Amino acid sequence: MYHQYIKTMKKILCLLATFIVLLSACSDSSNETVPPAKRTVIVYMAAENTLSGNAPSDIDEMIQGVKKISKYDNLIVFVDRASQIEKPFIIRLRDNEQQPADTIRKYEQDFLTSDPEKMKEVISWTMSNYPADDYGLVIWGHGNGWVIMNDASDSRRAIALDNGSNAVSDKGQWLDIPDLRKALASLPHPFKFIFADCCNMQNVEVAYELKDVTEYYIASPAGIPGDGAPYETIIPDLFLYDDVLMYTKTCDDYYAKIDNENGHLPISAVNTKELPTLASATKEILYKIYEANKPINTDGLIYYYSYGASDANEHIMYDMNDFLLRHAEQADYDKWLKSFNQTVIYKKMSTRWQVLGTLVFDFEVTEERFGGISMFVPLERYNNTYFKYNEGIKKMAWYQAVGWSELGW
User: Which phi and psi angles does 160 have, rounded to 5°?
Assistant: First the structure.
């Protein structure tokens, strides 16, 4: 009996030990070893401005989108809204009905999201605490592409507008693109992609500036809807690990959204490693155009941005392909187009899209003309406008790369 008792107790202890091991393996303990993430996507939400009210709904959309990604991948959102009581914070979004947004960092002091050093700090901290095989960046907020309107710090235009007073106001400080490049270049890791959910950000000048910090650059050359991207569908796209599927699906799903003027957003993706070759090809074709003394005629060209405070016809961002199609000889254009198509690797054309203010659709958009990316063309008339665009463009690396200075600009 004693020996039988011992055998029975041993069986019970073995079963109990097995149960404890199984229970431990199934638990969601904080001591659990989590495999490294394949991708961390960081959303930099600069909402201390008139877009503050759109931030909560976009975060809700992201919460819906995150349900379709791996639980071991990371969607991290930095948020700065126009609030007198709320300081900037960082959240991790998860597929968890009870707690879909974990606050992983609260800042004790307010700061300007347009400060490149603060942007670098936010992203570096996220990369260190949520490491992954690769990283994506979503820039959320107002945008004006490469445009720097003057040298006053509170009037610079580009991205990440912060009014500095926690008010719902667009009078504040912006982050210009050269400073953005410097901030991102100093990070511990480059990006797989940068997706700019901001107005007028798909300029060749911006893409060229960012060529060394990201493999792909996705944006629209046009003004975007106030409520931004449909994140419930785009978030899963950003976690597709086939590069082609990632950027094509992102463009397709943004394009599928119908804006409040019953239009679609033109959008494109750029392979940044091809930008130096495109710059060389563009320099060559521009030389031929200007050496031939061809008159530069912008009437009826596709354009994406117009600043009408001083001149209703002050069109600034012309479609790059449309401009060169009109002004170059056919053989030269055909040669250049090969380089362009290797750089702008995907685009969705729209014939009409939402605009704010002064852009007038006095042009026709066709497949032949539409390039999906804008380019600034120096013109004499900009010397007489309130904002000196011919001077502002000189701050961009593209200006030197394509030889605008050698052509007398």
Answer: 55, 45
pLDDT of residue 160: 65
pTM of the model: 0.88
Closest alpha carbon to 368 in 319, 331, 335? 319
Contact 193, 217 (CB under 8 A): yes
For the chain, the straight-line distance linking the first and the last C-alpha, in angstroms and rounded, comes to 103
* Residue 119 scores a pLDDT above 60: yes
pLDDT value, residue 188: 94
> Average of pLDDT values for 259-264?
74
Instruction: Give SS3 for 143.
Output: strand
**Distances from the Cα of 394 to the Cαs of 9, 149, 173, 274, 375, in angstroms?**
84, 12, 21, 22, 13
**At CA 210, angle to CA 190 and CA 237, rounded to 5?**
65
Integer CA distances (angstroms), 319 to 136, 305, 364, 374, in order = 27, 10, 12, 4
Tally helices (H) and strands (E) across the chain: 12, 13
* R_g (Cα) of the chain, nearest Å: 25
pLDDT in tens, 154-196: 444 666 665 666 666 667 777 889 999 999 999 999 999 999 9
CA distances 63 to 80, 138, 224, 250, Å, are 18, 15, 22, 17
Q: What is the pLDDT of residue 406?
A: 95
Q: Could you tell me the maximum CA-CA distance found in the chain, to the nearest angstrom?
A: 111
Q: Which of 5-19, 58-72, 363-377 has the lowest mean pLDDT?
A: 5-19
Contacts of 103 (CB under 8 A, 6+ apart): 89, 90, 91
Q: How far apart are CA 67 and CA 54, in angstroms?
A: 21
Residue of 333, 402, 403 whose CA lies nearest to 369: 333
Rounded Cα–Cα distance for residues 235 and 254 (Å)? 11
Query: d(Cα 195, Cα 140) in Å, to the nearest integer?
Result: 9
Instruction: Identify the burial level of 8 via C-beta atoms within 10 angstroms of its C-beta, where 0-12 means exposed, 13-18 middle and 19 or more buried.
Output: exposed
Structure tokens at 46: 């600069």
Whether the predicted pLDDT of 330 surpasses 50: yes
